[in-house]
Amino acid sequence: MYFGRDRARPAASARSVRLYASTLDAGIAKGSAEIRHPPRLHLVDGTYELFRAHFSKRPEHRDPSGRTLRATLGVVSSMLALLRDPEERVTHIAIAFDNPIRSFRNELFTGYKTEEGVPAELLDQFELVEDAMRALGIVVWSVNEWEADDALATAASRFWQDVEQVRILTPDKDLGQCLRGTRIVQVDRMRRRVIDETGPLVARGVAPASVPDYLALVGDAADGIPGIPGFGKKTAAALLREYGRIENVPLAAADWKPALRGAGALAATLSANLDLAYLYRRLATLVQTVPLPESLEDLRWKGVPQARFEAWARTIGAPESLVTLGLGLSSARPAPDG
After folding, report:
1. Among residues 83, 195, 68, which one has the least CA distance to residue 138?
2. pLDDT for 223-277, tens place per residue?
3. What is the pTM (predicted TM-score) of this model?
4. 48, 60, 80, 145: least CB-packed within 10 angstroms?
């Protein structure tokens, strides 16, 4: 089952709030003349945004044909807020959706997440929300075979050296494996929290490179990864801090450097389930070779394309307040086709 992903998260730490503030452009005073900033690449987990909007307390909205669009309008509102935010300074942006939700990982493991349990009215909005994002002038990656997270990981890996910073907009712990210093960070907009390369170490006790191994051992209920029996968060973190990868963990408990309670039973369990551990790690490892056709320049945001946005707004009967916000960011330039 897929929905409900990462709905409960701990409050932001003082350090993460300071890091969020440190990434903002404090040198630009309000009302000053426009200054051309170094490019930033914002990569948005559209599936997360859609689910979050669906389960929010937003008022219902239906288009003239009666289709429910509450989640879609929630994502539009969220992206307009992002595009208007002078602290985020969006110059380049793309958004990725799991459409369909199933991916190559379902062929590797039958227990991996599917669309089972996802409300029909939410599934019906994937195409609609993609159209809405294009109407905002945002490049859309409608990911088939892979997942949205794979597209985000690919773009981060491909473009991080060409921009000031890559900002991955999702609290999803999977993306922790992509973090690189302060050049590739995650942004949790709900909690005004920026997570840099030290984030996974602070939160879970493991470095970014060990995140897939960590998820393989402890499991990831949101993605349908069960984990290895007996391995909790502290045990997995202790082993991976010492050994880094699953294959480096000695199979004999007597060789374990951390003194762990129940080490004998845990070592025996890991030895008996090594193939599963490697499979789960593959499921948790993000692909960084998705064939995205766009160059960095293609991802440059040029404003909301007025004609396309107005046509979309008329089609779905968008609230006047939303139309006003969109037109306030309008541009005469055409939207990308992606």
Report:
1. 83
2. 999 999 999 999 999 999 999 999 999 999 999 988 899 999 999 999 999 999 9
3. 0.87
4. 60
- For residues 148 and 96, the answer to whether their CB atoms sit within 8 Å is yes
C-alpha to C-alpha distance for 85 and 227, rounded to whole angstroms? 39
pLDDT digits (tens, 9 = 90+) for 40-67: 999 999 999 999 999 999 899 999 999 9
Q: Are 212 and 177 in contact (CB under 8 A)?
A: yes
What token pair was written down for 264? Answer: 């004998």
CA-based R_g, the chain, Å: 21
Return all residues near 279 (Cβ < 8 A) that are at least 6 apart: 108, 109
State the Cα–Cα distance between residues 242 and 250, nearest whole angstrom. Answer: 11
Domain boundaries, the chain: 38-200+287-331, 203-284
- The CATH number of 38-200+287-331, from 3.10.450.50, 1.10.540.10, 2.60.40.10, 3.40.50.1010, is 3.40.50.1010
What's residue 335's pLDDT?
52
Give the domain 203-284 fold: DNA polymerase; domain 1 (1.10.150)
